[in-house]
Design a protein that fits this description.
- By secondary structure, the protein is of the alpha+beta class.
- The protein folds into two domains: 270 residues, Orthogonal Bundle (2-methylcitrate dehydratase PrpD), CATH 1.10.4100; 124 residues, 2-methylcitrate dehydratase PrpD (60s Ribosomal Protein L30, Chain: A).
- It is 51% helix and 7% strand.
- It is built from 24 helices and eight strands.
- Strands 6-5-7-8 form a four-stranded mixed beta sheet.
- A hairpin with a 6-residue loop joins strand 1 and strand 2.
- Helix 9 runs antiparallel to helix 10.
- The longest helix has 21 residues.
Length: 474
């Protein structure tokens, strides 16, 4: 259909059109299910968050055809609204998974949060279309792969200049998943991609505010809207990834075509280099350092009152996004290296949802603990590059004892993967804000078998409001 050479757009279109459930390798399906479980749990948790509540009230003002469920609630709303609400909720606590980089010049940990925008869009469209579980998981895996490969193809300047890729490129993954579920033909798919690239948006200046999860929600909504408009005949440039006016050139200053052409599904990004499932509800760049702090606390029985100082040497690429030295609320705390290390020291190694709350962040004793923490740029670590999240933690005790640990990875990464029991603990932490233990257990089991479901309606019902929702979230 394209009137000009468009190898990048062609590669994406051919991958989406020609990939079916049977062509997705088993290991990619296994990881997709894990991401599916983790993502749904976070959407349930985020439905109780301040930002999630605001979005739900906003959506109520407009009404519309009841097509898809907002997870964790009784609300059934238009598909694009459900995608928006679930996308915001999935990223609200900054606890959702992160894409890993395949190339040393790409910034490790700073590509996308791949699951949230794709899953939020796919769930909404699948419920609207009456899709099977197999169709849903297939579309999710395809959207996830497209998002990751596009994020690696675009020049790193895209993120460095201040774009938030979960918003900008997450929308492309959401559109690919939506288009697959709607069975768009080649022409419609090209128009869908052209539309969504003009919807692509998200600025890193909004990190530490509710607008960061807004990026993920809007990306999911934009993917649904683009697919539905294209299905109705709405047109766009059918070669949107190519040429001087294409998204790669305009928003990234170019791309590396060989990172995408011939690489979609070869290998699947979920498998190689893999995806990192977060162990803490904070910016992923803090996690290796947080695990180092947690490990030292648990190994040596370190108590806050016995610590004189904590120094963390790392890189500018870690400290620039984690920029809040004196956070005033939970959203800023998620992007504060001082807070993320300090709260672990303060609590003896705990750093979950309960520790990232406004009322905890402003406690005087917590603020006193943060005065002991000193993050700084370590020139030797900086010189090693940004292909890993490297840091060196030094804890000096009041008695002069020094504990040190160097790290470049964290729990939840392919190097230190969480097993199903650990994932269940996180799922319980999230869903326990809405559901009782029985509902949590049933939901987790069904989610792991999502592609065996003839209809997703039973799953959607199980992920709606909990029997103890009012009590839990009051």
């Amino acid at each position: 259909m394209a009137e000009q050479e468009s190898p990048l757009t062609d590669a994406i279109v051919e991958f989406v059109l020609n990939t079916g459930h049977e062509s997705i390798p088993d290991d990619a399906k296994t990881i997709s299910r894990r991401c599916f479980v983790d993502g749904c749990g976070l959407m349930v948790a985020g439905s109780t968050d301040h930002s999630g509540r605001i979005v739900q009230n906003y959506i109520k003002e407009f009404g519309g055809e009841p097509e898809a469920r907002i997870l964790g609630t009784e609300m059934t709303v238009p598909a694009h609204s459900a995608a928006f609400a679930n996308g915001v909720a999935g990223h609200a606590m900054d606890y959702d998974d992160t894409q890993l980089s395949s190339y040393p010049d790409r910034i490790y940990g700073l590509l996308t949060h791949p699951t949230t925008p794709v899953l939020a869009a796919a769930l909404a469209v699948a419920e609207t279309m009456g899709s099977t579980g197999e169709e849903l998981l297939t579309a999710f895996a395809i959207g996830f792969e497209v998002e990751c490969k596009v994020a690696e193809c675009i020049k790193p300047d895209h993120y460095i200049r201040g774009f938030h890729t979960t918003g900008t490129i997450g929308a492309i993954g959401a559109a690919a998943a939506s288009a697959k579920l709607m069975d768009l033909d080649e022409g419609q798919l090209r128009f869908c991609l052209g539309i969504v690239c003009s919807e692509s948006a998200g600025l890193r200046a909004n990190f530490g505010t509710m607008t960061k999860p807004f990026h993920a929600g809007r990306a999911a909504e934009n993917g649904v809207v683009a697919a539905r408009l294209a299905a109705g005949g709405f047109t766009s440039d059918p070669t949107i990834f190519d040429g001087q006016w294409g998204i790669f050139e305009i928003m990234g200053g170019g791309c590396d075509p060989d990172h995408l052409i011939g690489k979609l599904g070869n290998p699947w990004s979920a498998v190689d280099p893999g995806v990192s499932i977060k162990p803490y509800p904070s910016g992923s760049l803090s996690h290796p350092s947080m695990d180092a702090m947690r490990d030292l606390i648990l190994e040596h029985g370190i108590k806050n009152e016995d610590v004189k100082s904590v120094r963390l040497g790392t890189t500018t690429r870690v400290l620039q996004p984690l920029r809040y030295d004196d956070p005033q609320n939970e959203l800023e705390a998620k992007f504060s290296m001082k807070y993320s290390l300090g709260i672990l020291l303060h609590t003896g190694g705990k750093g979950g949802i309960a520790q990232y709350r406004d009322e905890v962040v402003v406690q005087d004793d917590v603020k006193e603990t943060l005065k002991k923490i000193e993050p700084f740029v370590d020139d030797e670590i900086e010189a090693q590059g940004y292909d890993r999240i490297r840091s060196k933690l030094t804890i000096e005790m009041n008695d002069g004892t020094v504990h040190e640990k160097e790290t470049d990875t964290s729990r939840g990464t392919p190097q230190r993967p969480m097993d199903r029991e650990e994932l269940y603990e996180k799922f319980t932490e999230c869903c326990g804000l809405v559901y009782d233990q029985d509902q949590i257990a049933r939901a987790e089991k069904l989610l792991y078998k999502v592609d065996n479901q003839e209809s997703i309606y039973s799953l959607v019902e199980l992920l709606g409001a909990g029997q103890v929702a009012e009590k839990k979230t009051a």
